[in-house]
Structure formats: structure tokens, C-alpha cells
Amino acid sequence: MPVQITIIGLGQVGASLGLALAAHKDSVFCVGHDKDFSIERAAQQKGAVDKTEHNLPTAVKDARLVLLALPVHQVRETLEFIAPDLVPGTVVVDTSPIKSEVANWARDILPRGCYYVGLIPTIAAEFLNETETGLDSARAVLFKNSIFLVDAPSGTPGEALQLVTNFVGLAGATIMIADIAESDGLMASTYLLPQLVSAALLNATMNQPGWKEARKVAERAYHAVTSVRDDPESLQMLSLHNRENAVRVLNAMISSLVDLRDEIEDGNDEAVKKLLQAAHKGREEWLNDRFSAAWADKKAPPLEKTPLKERLFGTMLTRPSKDKK
Q: What is the pLDDT of residues 15-42, one digit of tens each?
């Protein structure tokens, strides 16, 4: 009998993982939930889930793994809502980019015998230029050959971590184990900083007297650099929950801008050229690495030659009694 995975939040990330799981219907039964009825229906029609359940307690009560593909400001409330209906052995995974506060919520809210593992998915390189984030942009190959950061709090059983590892494998990705402090530091540089810089650029330009005319000629460069993925509430929470790292990377950004400003102010042709060439070369090298995904093979954990259902869920296939004392 297939084992149930429940996906809460059927946007691009949640639905894409559901589409990837659809190739394994003999082992996995996917239940989907979204606060929007129409998105639930569309996700099922798209094949992202086998069944939808709008009643959240019902959606999770038989799940062995619950995936929270939600904005961070919705995670705590959702954990509180589903906690009474989780049975021991259930693993709860979230996709928020900052983990320290989410891990604290999970520790305080989840019932005894349930486990939290943080998951940070990264999309495949060929989709980096796409800006859509909703259900319509979901794809089964969205995460193929990409790396997922996995944060397992101290004391997490090996079976729970193995479950998540193999779940990621079904999406075509591999894992990189990180502790939460390391993970939050990495995401401050690669997730928070670009969006905070975008917000600062928008405020710096739109608040200037010349914006009335400048807006008429702003085009590709301005559009590319001012993309803020998260809504203001989520970005605010992510920044403040990761405040020390956010301040650190903002200070590094300010220092880099000051260096560039000073060289331009001094009219130092060679220094300006060197700074810009270094940035250009660095970006090319990063993109080459991302498209080749050469690191994926180095990080891939060995998989046992056992049936998929047993390999995916291991000893956690046996459901314990629902005793939360």
C-alpha cells in the first residue's frame, strides 16, 4: 500500500515536488492542501497530487511525511494547527529559507515522537531566469540535478533524516547536510541579501526627484535587479529572524559599494575595470558550475538496493500507536 505524503501549500515548490512524486505512485500517495479551493482543484487536475483535502487535520492524520511549502509567516500557525493530529513517527519538513526560528517553533509545538527536518530547495539552473512562482510555474523537473540544504536538529533519528534524503532523491535532487547556523549564514548571502539590496535600490531611486522621468526609461537592467521574490511580511520576518547574518552581509555589501564608489570618484580607470571584471568573471564561473551541476555527484549519498517503498521510509513504515503522552 502506498505511503502518504501530505503537501501543505500548492504553489511552485509544493506542486513541483508533487509532480516529481507522481512518477512513484506505486510507493507514494500524495495528498495536497491549500487555503485556496481553486488552487487545490487545479493542482489535482495538473497531477501534482493524488487527492486534495481542505480539512487540514484530516489532510495530515495519515501522513508519514508532512511538507510545509509555505511563506514563513504562515508556518508557526500551521504547525500549531496540525500538531494535535500528527502521530508519533511523522516527519514534518518545511521549505522556509531561514531555519533557526522555524526549528524553535517545531521544537516547542510538535508532539513527542514527531520530528522536524528543515529543507531548503534550489531550482535547476535552466529555470533561473523565470520569475513566476505560482502553481502554473510548477514542473516535475524543477529541482533536477539541484542541491537541497537539509538541516536536521540535534537528536533527529537517522530514519527521519534518511526519509527526507530519499524524498529529495525522488525530486531528482541531492542533499547537502548543514547545521542551522551554517544554513542561515549561506541563505543570508544568497537569498536575503539580493532581495534587501533590491528593496534598497527601489527606495533609493523611486524616492529621488528625478524618478518621474526616470521611470519612463527604466528597462532591463532595472527590472533584473529590482526583483523582490518574497512579500514584505515574509521578507521582514526572514530578515529579523536572521538579523545577525543579515547585518553581516549588508555590511559587506555596503563596503563593496563604498570601494566601487571611491574608485569611480577618483577616476581610477584600472581599479574600476578590475572590480567590474572580477564580478563578471565570478558570475560566469558560478553559472557554469550551476549548469554543469558537477557537485551533485560528489554530494549524492549512497542508496541501498532495496525496494523503493522500503528504501524511502525504512523502519518508519510501521505506524506506532497514537499516544502523545
A: 999 999 999 988 899 999 999 999 999 9
**Spatial distance between the Cα atoms of 4 and 1, rounded to a whole number of angstroms:** 9
Instruction: Give residue 48's pLDDT.
Output: 96
CATH of 182-265, one of 1.10.3720.10, 1.10.3660.10, 3.90.1150.10, 1.10.10.10: 1.10.3660.10
Closest C-alpha to 182, from 214, 215, 152, 212: 152
* Each residue's pLDDT tens digit, 259-290: 999 999 999 999 999 999 999 999 999 999 98
How many residues appear in the chain? 325
Render 115-147 in DSSP notation, one character per residue: EEEEEE----GGGTT----SGGG--TTTTTT-E
CATH 3.40.50.720, domain 3-178+296-317, yes or no: yes
